[in-house]
Amino acid sequence: MATPPSTGAQLRGPIFIVGYIHTGTSLLHNILSRDGSLFASAGESHFFHDLKRIRGEFPNLDDPTVLRDYVYFLVMLAYLGARKAATQRNEFTLGELGLTAADFETVLAAARKTLAVAPAEQRHEALFSTVMDQLTAINGKRRWLEKTPAHVHFLGPILNLWPDARVVELVRDPRGALASRKHRRTEEWLDAKEEAEGAETDRTTNFDPLLDSMMWKEAVRAGDEAKLAHPGRVLTVRYEDMVSRPAEVIPQICDFVGLAYTDRLLEVGWVNSTSKSGSGSEGISTAAIEKWRKSLTTEEIHVCQVVLRQDMARYQYEPVPVSAAVRAKTPVLLAQSAGRLASRLGSRQTTGVEQRRSDTTRRMYRRVVRNLGLQK
Length: 376
Fold this sequence. Notes:
This protein has 376 residues and is of the alpha/beta class.
């Protein structure tokens, strides 16, 4: 674990948890949420990922009705997470969230003050910060905590907007992350990365060892760039260290973000965002560390190890030997993986409310050649 200088308990800024998907971000969120001084947002806000869409939905904040609707949306975002806030926010009342009408008017009044002084190009972001600050105060807390893995690609604006913010980046053995990804088959991560690049997103993508290995690589690179640009403000923690030595690693995380560590933080329930099943009260377990050995095929493991050889060595993830026959098939395996991905991305599928019209196959090719080092 890379350890920036100790920060002490004087910090007042928000805490962000980021990283590639399936790296233990939910577990760390649950651990830190047990600190009584934190207001922890529920779910994942995806605020920066969705910012373009949000600006389109709430364009004219000078309109009192639009401003009120936007503030209400942000409140729901904090309590419900991105998906429910976008599609189901009208199904919930403030009372069900533990808020009163007076609470909302307090938040709205603070939002009006922020709007009057915020830079025009950052009004939506400034209001997000104000709403989170107000909800923190209403709940009697001192700081707020937000967990969206894909925000690793937005650490530049995040750290610029909140000069006193701290970020904890989780990194996991890519083979373990791919094994979880293989079973969940979620599209949110690729969507977030494409959105960060200003590209049209496509939700037709499922698990592919080549693409997911490269996405893991890009997440790590994004964290590296943030650490270079903002020294001492991003802490990188290996998932394996966190679950193997929680009594050692969690106090280090607390020291970095400015929280007082107590053993109570480790008394978390069972957490697994991949399968959403399980039982028992033990939430910090090493059981998932080696599951990739059974979940991934030898070919999938080999593709991952070939693409991420240098990165795995940097994070001390040892490659496992594969047969000469599998090694000899490396070009074929990579080509097959790219072909499957091209077919999947190139298909025209309706994703609920819209038809994807972008040339996804071309985007896939660009991503492959760039991440394999064939294109700057």
